[in-house]
Amino acid sequence: MAQNRRSLILFRYILISAMIIVVCFAIVWNMVRISLVESEYWDMKADSLKTPNVRMRALRGNILSCKDEILASTVPEYSLFIDFRVDGLKKDTFEKYVKPLSVALASKFGEKSAKGYEQSLRRAYAAKVSRYRLHGKRVSYIDYREVEEFPLLNKGRYKSGFFEEHVITRTKPFGKVASRTIGSLADTGGIYGLEQAYNTQLKGVDGLADKEKVRDTWVYRYSRKPVQGMDIRTTLDLRIQTITEMALLRKLKDIDAETGTAVVMEVATGKVRAIANYTRVREGVYAELRNNAVADMVEPGSTFKTVAVMAALDDGVAAHDEIFDTGNGIYHVGRSIMRDHNHHRGGYGEITLSQAIQYSSNIGTAKAILKGYENRPGFFIDHLYRMGLADSVDFNLKGQGYPFIPHPDTYRGWNLTTLPWMSFGYNVLIPPVYTLMFYNAIANGGKMIAPVFATDAIRDGKVVEHYEAKVVRDSICKPSTLAAIRRMLSDVVLLGTAKVLQSPYVSIAGKTGTAQLRHRGQVVGHRVSFCGYFPDNERPKYSCIVVITKPRIGYPSGGDMSGMVLRRIAEQMYALGYFGEPALPDRDTLNCYYPVVKGGMEQVVAAACDSLGIAFSVSGAGSSSRWVTARQTDSGVELEGVGLRSGTLPSVTGMGLVDALYILESEGLEVSVNGRGTVYEQIPAAGTAVSAGEKVILNLH
After folding, report:
1. I need a labelling partner for 475 at 20 to 30 A (CA). Which of 142, 207, 298, 309 fits?
2. How far apart are the first and last CA of the chain?
3. Residues near 42 by beta carbon (within 8 Å), at least 6 away in sequence
4. DSSP secondary structure string, 390-447?
5. What is the spatial distance between Cα 698 and Cα 520, in angstroms, rounded to a whole number?
6. pLDDT bracket for residue 589 (50, 70, 90)
7. pLDDT attached to residue 542
């Protein structure tokens, strides 16, 4: 018996040993076969799952406002899928979680009802769909992480089939604010605006990696990691930008103009605080299609008279109090006729050179220039060149224009009328930003500096590159000439063609301009402009130019049209404390009631007015609107309905914070709040096209 047991154990031992030997032999054989016989096949198989030297695009830097608000940023967006083919997704698991998952998806996205999602998920599971899309649009990283925790999906990729694909997109958190200046991108980088101008700094350095597939997932093994692009801090001030856009757009719609441009510049530094360019795309609708302020080559009209008179004063060929006879407003130069704008009222007669600027007399200005330069026009043009107005200043913006001021020695088209007509802004082509640069020099004590649009390149919070404004000329004229010119520009507003710009809050100086636009010899419209600075004191803080083309309503006027845009900008900047603390008006002069009525829900506001005995009226969409804004009038309070349209930013100015937040957050907008009390400003402006997730700033006082 014992013998049999030992024999059985020995047999089993020999059998197990034999099996181990066979397995070892098989392993060795397969190793030899794979390494020698099938090596080429497996090398090819491995190569098919690996891609060497894949370019890993660097994350693009942000574009920031002067106060470091993000104007353009690179963010990932995610497409969300379920792969119903994965082995780890069992039927009982699917059945257990399909209903709660459907409820969560319906609550989050709302594209379908919970039942609709469940039916769709069941069909996809039965068909073993490999790329079932959970949501029709790409979502943010925050939304992706939220969905990742939904029932079933939180079990991971290999048990739920849930996976994502992401792309890097460029977004502008403030929508269309300063959109044209910020610029746009193509695959190769920026194609215009600051995106193009600072593309080298923004784009960073791409990396290299080997891409390899491991368990159905692509893994990247870096040989050179990408270096994120630098952030660019611009000179743009979001508040001033919004004020400028609103003021310009409002005027363009009021006068039904074709295009409008406005630029606000800080006098001492040359920093462009706001730049707006609008073109009518259809009746009543405007968009930023082109950077007209920088790119347009236009005849500046009467704003150029300041340039001509400055040269004449500086050369001593005319004096500010010298009298010139403008007659009845009609003056013959060869076969051509020059007219003053009041020729139909008999002209200005005898006026001083200062009055010629004050009243914007073409004849008075032209006679002063002809007196000094008729027999030596090249001397006049050389003086303009010495001022720096004809310099090709590089603003680092694609498509910019450069001044064209013809010289009699080189310009073949020079004739008898070229010089006199040039004195009031014809026969020269100057981008609006160059005209602003000249007037800014007047405000800056004669020092001409080039407009600057960006100040710093930043990496990891530290300034890597700093961009200073270029000094074009240390002085554009003699101190005595500058003093005379500044008096003239003050008188334009106090006594002359821009009296409408007189403001009880901020003093303004500058020059109006009107130029006829001709096609085939016929006048087809006008270009009206105003260029100046404010406050009009020893040290003005801001300069501004406003140019409007082809207004169809009202008499073309650089004062009433372009100038009023500048006045509105200046007054709103004053109210926001850009010149120091604004003075408070006398309480007795305020046309308001105490307590001040805020906007909000119509029924609540109306009930409050009734209970306090305050007269009110409802206008606009108020009678059918749930929300209203409130405006104090001499007779009471006017309530105006707030139009709530999907995709359009509603007006919440005049409302309390609670109501404003409710309205904006109901639209899916991210709201940032400064101050407390009543909303007096919103950025972007009401009516701006917005989408969920965009940022809105509310300023309260």
Report:
1. 298
2. 106
3. 34
4. TS----S-TT----B---TTT-TT--TTHHHHHTTT-S-BB-HHHHHHHHHHHHTTT-
5. 50
6. very low
7. 97
pLDDT for 190: 63
- Rounded to a whole number of angstroms, the CA Rg of the chain reads 36
Say if CB 600 and CB 621 are below 8 A apart: no
9: Cβ contacts below 8 Å, ≥ 6 apart: none
CA dihedral 674, 677, 683, 687 (to 10 degrees): 160
Instruction: Measure Cα distances from 109 to 104, 136, 339, 638, 694 in Å.
Output: 9, 9, 67, 39, 17
Residue 582 vs residues 573, 576, 678, 691: alpha-carbon distances, Å: 10, 7, 18, 35
Backbone angles phi, psi at 164, to 5 degrees: -130, 155
| Whether pLDDT at 45 is above 80 | no
Q: Give the distance between the most distant pair of CA atoms in the chain.
A: 148
Residue 283: how many other CB atoms lie within 10 Å: 6
121-130's contacts with Cβ under 8 Å and 24+ in sequence apart are 121/82, 122/98, 124/82, 124/84, 125/84, 125/94, 125/98, 127/84, 128/84, 128/85, 129/82, 129/84, 130/83, 130/84, 130/85
* Local structure of residue 585 (DSSP, 8 states): P
Q: How confident is the model at residue 581 (pLDDT cuts 50, 70, 90)?
A: low
Phi, psi of 512 (to 5 degrees): -80, 160
Q: Residues 267, 440: contact at Cβ < 8 Å?
A: yes
In whole numbers, what is the pLDDT of the chain averaged over residues? 86
**Residue given tokens 């069941």 in the structure block:** 122
pLDDT band at residue 315, thresholds of 50, 70 and 90?
A: very high
Q: Which residue in the block uniquely carries the two structure tokens 């991971």?
A: 156
Q: pLDDT exceeding 90 applies to what percent of the chain?
A: 52
Q: What DSSP state is assigned to residue 538?
A: S
For the stretch 511-530, pLDDT in tens is: 999 999 988 888 899 999 99
pTM, to two decimals: 0.76
Positions of E strands within 508-661: 509-519, 522-534, 542-549, 600-601, 616-619, 627-633, 636-641
Res 695: pLDDT: 85
**Which residue is it, tokens 């894949």?**
54
